[in-house]
């Protein structure tokens, strides 16, 4: 019997330093996130980052926490329930980090008689620190506990025409009542080094833009290319003018060069260039979370306005909207019927 495993990143159990610390430990000790040898990762994460960050992150989580829990988790649960109501095969939700585990979700599916699973990493783009680590962890759990399960992975959907359409339509609805000078597509950042590591050809990605327009198998795993491509497709779908749209990367850690331009630098730059009414979309995320609600909707607004900006709007993620639920249900039904996966 077929079933579906949806996986997102996960959140701490509560917005306290006590719960944020083990969550960050699991997250940052992932070799696909802080990709240095174990001994060095131990020093960086446990010796340096985890000394102060849990307290600081807990304060940020407190600002966005809902009565029902972490927005990322609550939205993902609502999404799962809604998709379940539109399909007739079991759907389970797992998180890569934290207490809602991939193992338990696979067990839930197994208990319902599922032996063929469609794994859906809830990330539109491929990055070793998001999509890849979900796939690797799921395959490790399968090998250890569910060796007879067959698992198929839904590919990154950053250029899927149906996804681009519903994303564009949701942006259009939000922009209808907002007069803007500029629309910023702010994607989660990753270290530049990760782009090179994920390049199977080992020479295609230059990280200067010169490579993105030359067709290459490297694009299948190039986060930077996929962010540029998605921006282009949405821009075209909405007929946004070239000079009113740009892209940037947010949420970096203070180490190494990360993908540029940096979102916080853009917030400072725009008002100086006369761009004082800014709309920001965060299309690396399917669900609103700490990085969109606190960093962009709250902190970003302050940074932009302190730099001289006026009107500011964060456009929500697709979350559990009918359009996104409907599209996911369609992808599941297509796979259920004849193994078709979205391109
Ligand atoms: C969109 C996909 C994501 C990628 C790629 C990604 C890479 C990445 N992230 C960190 C460090 C942190 N990210 C944090 C929060 C966070 N990250 C994503 C998504 C991606 N991260 C989400 C959805 C969230 C929010 C989770 C929530 O509970 O709402 C955090 C924790 C919060 C904080 O302390 O700021 C860290 C740390 C790295 C190092 C990285 C790639 C190397
Ligand atoms: Fe992150």
Automatic annotation (TrEMBL):
Keywords, ordered alphabetically = Cytoplasm, Heme biosynthesis, Iron, Lyase, Metal-binding, Porphyrin biosynthesis
State where Fe(2+) binds. 188, 291
- Write down the SUPFAM superfamilies for this protein, in alphabetical order: Chelatase
Which catalytic reaction applies to this protein? Answer: Fe-coproporphyrin III + 2 H(+) = coproporphyrin III + Fe(2+); heme b + 2 H(+) = protoporphyrin IX + Fe(2+)
Q: Which GO terms describe its molecular function?
A: ferrochelatase activity; metal ion binding
Q: Name one GO cellular component term.
A: cytoplasm
Pathway given in the UniProt record? Porphyrin-containing compound metabolism; protoheme biosynthesis; protoheme from protoporphyrin-IX: step 1/1
- Say which enzyme class the record assigns: lyase
Q: Where in the cell is it found?
A: Cytoplasm
One Pfam annotation reads Ferrochelatase
User: What biological-process terms (Gene Ontology) are attached?
Assistant: heme biosynthetic process
Q: What is its EC number?
A: 4.98.1.1
The record's listing under InterPro entries reads: Ferrochelatase, Ferrochelatase_C, Ferrochelatase_N
The UniProt entry, under HAMAP family, shows: Ferrochelatase (MF_00323)
The UniProt entry's sequence similarity note says: Belongs to the ferrochelatase family.
Role played: Catalyzes the ferrous insertion into protoporphyrin IX.
State what protein this is by name.
Answer: Ferrochelatase
